[in-house]
Amino acid sequence: MLFTKEEYKQRLKKVQTSMQEKGIELLISHDTNNMNYLTGYDAWSFYYAQCAIVHVNAEEPLCFVRAQDAGGAYIKTYLKNENVIVYDENYIHTWPKHPYDYLVEIIKERKWDKLSIGLEMDAHYFTAFCYEKIKQGLPNAKIKDSERLVNWARLIKSDAEIGFMKSAAIISQKGMKTAMEVINPGVRQCDAVGEIQKSLFYGTSEFGGEYSSIATLLPTGKGTSASHLTATQDKFVTGEATIIELSGVHNRYHAPMARTVLLGKPDQLKIDTMNKTIEALQAGIDQTKPGNTADDVAQAFWKVLDKYGIEKKSRTGYSIGIGYPPDWGEHTLNIYKGDMTVLEKNVCFHMIAVMQFGDWGVEASEAIRVTDNGSELFCDFPKELHIKS
Amino acid sequence: MLFTKEEYKQRLKKVQTSMQEKGIELLISHDTNNMNYLTGYDAWSFYYAQCAIVHVNAEEPLCFVRAQDAGGAYIKTYLKNENVIVYDENYIHTWPKHPYDYLVEIIKERKWDKLSIGLEMDAHYFTAFCYEKIKQGLPNAKIKDSERLVNWARLIKSDAEIGFMKSAAIISQKGMKTAMEVINPGVRQCDAVGEIQKSLFYGTSEFGGEYSSIATLLPTGKGTSASHLTATQDKFVTGEATIIELSGVHNRYHAPMARTVLLGKPDQLKIDTMNKTIEALQAGIDQTKPGNTADDVAQAFWKVLDKYGIEKKSRTGYSIGIGYPPDWGEHTLNIYKGDMTVLEKNVCFHMIAVMQFGDWGVEASEAIRVTDNGSELFCDFPKELHIKS
């Protein structure tokens, strides 16, 4: 158990309070991250239907997993065994049969089928098929979109969570240091990622690393115009830039970082663009403190870009914490003009400037924690364009 | 472009023929693997809404991605630029706004809003929210579940695809060899995965590796009862078994493999159970040939287990090929009693025996190709319980 039982109970209470406010009596939380947050469950089993089920008055959530994963739930969750609900293997890939048929049965058995039921309508893996099973199976329930109710409960981190993120950050630094060392002309991209992955898993002697919820992103050359490209077996080329976006992970907590490296002689346009980007990031970071909003941070960031006449349409940050594939964003706070989320102590976000200009781009980012009076960075790694001549 | 334009055109034709048979005029294919299969698109952008759109009479599919990924689509797909449809960044995490609002607009603009539209209802990432956007936005469309129409088109592999899987298999062998070398008493699990990942990315001098659609699974000790657990920073312990499940990946094609290693002195129960499992796998492999069904393979497998009085409820295989997180299964053929899918040449599947017994388990698997007269294994690696005394 990674957290005290008390911490898990506080999480449950926070979620139940929010459920009451929204008039939700039963919550089906399909989001992998939310399931981990509520129960401690941790396994690569999210490719088949699973969820946490929270009754507004329950002492514990239920953890709904397939039979093959029951052992994992007994090992990883803090729950009493009776609260691990196991569905049979004959629900796997035997459509139209579906695990949510069994979930519907469970809900009926417990006489919860007339309740107001919250569903995470846009959560990864909560498919249209799951939704139809619930709607058709529970015609007397009042179905509501619970939106990102549990995600919002995750926004402010506990000290224990911050501790895991700090460990993750040390691992991120190690991974980025390796990246800067191994990215050289003539080296295959895949080989560089092999070394980066090794660093990220080894972590430190104190904190081991884990698989990240996003693969090491490594767009290079023209690919720097497309931030989500991954490594191929092509070689790095002199004169080209490469963006590295990665995250160390510890106990599923992330502290992502993006940097850009240029192989060959200095390219003034890229250097200048990177410096303007860093100035904009710093302006945003300077506005990061309790009481300010995400919008305040975004306004400061874009004010610098406007000064330089740089157009950037995509948001420039999002909250972070627990992560499972395919994403390490929490889907709550956005660093974007108009997001009026108020920053509080221990809100953590990834402030990332993806700058794209036709067939090239540069990128830098920081994982940031809101402190009592301002903010601190999780990582300590120069943001400047790294030039390897 | 990884395949000839002709091969992409054949894929499209196969899908369009199947659409006609099912009375589907427009297909929204949200599945990441299907999108890659139909367009060549390849990036870690599936954490936000994206899809391939196939009109039953179109010359090319459309590739629907966010603005930040347009560059990636131009680089990776075989499509004309006009067939890359780009949605604005202001649709990202600004609910109730959603990229599918724009998709609905596109469909209306093209006057496709009264067509019979197929949706992949249970595809990973096709959320209930996407579905509601389509239903509410296109009230005159006839919505159908296209089920796994494109997945089924992927079942029989081309020679080029088989080539990529053979490269992936060589990488799998390298990864497993590393695993067997580095898993030792006192070694941290995460460090072992660091070495395994390095092997998997380096691949060979000819074929580089890529991120796998499932992380290296590494249940150990009691964890062997739970096949989807991943590495922690705990150390391997003398006397305990560890299951390794991994896949080499080349151009997104997978060839997975599972093996079990025991540290310390031989444990006769585990050795015997492993041998019985291998006998069952071999019986299934012997039934693998064109004309036989998945059921024939399953019957042969379970007949051996029945002989030994071993109970196993989960299926024992599934088709494989392209893979993106969270899964490398194709969601079509199942090696399971009652699955009457007929095997044909170049059907490929992962035959995996996950054997769980309360608080312990063993596992072995083979990636298999159906040949003209029988079958061949992609990998060449002993299946026996590997004992390191």
TrEMBL record, chains A, B:
CDD domains xrefs: APP_MetAP (cd01066)
Pfam family, one: Peptidase_M24
Residue span(s) of domain Peptidase M24: 165-371
All residue ranges annotated as the Creatinase N-terminal domain in the record: 11-156
Name of this chain's protein: Peptidase M24 domain-containing protein
UniProt source species: marine metagenome
Taxonomic lineage from the root: unclassified sequences, metagenomes, ecological metagenomes
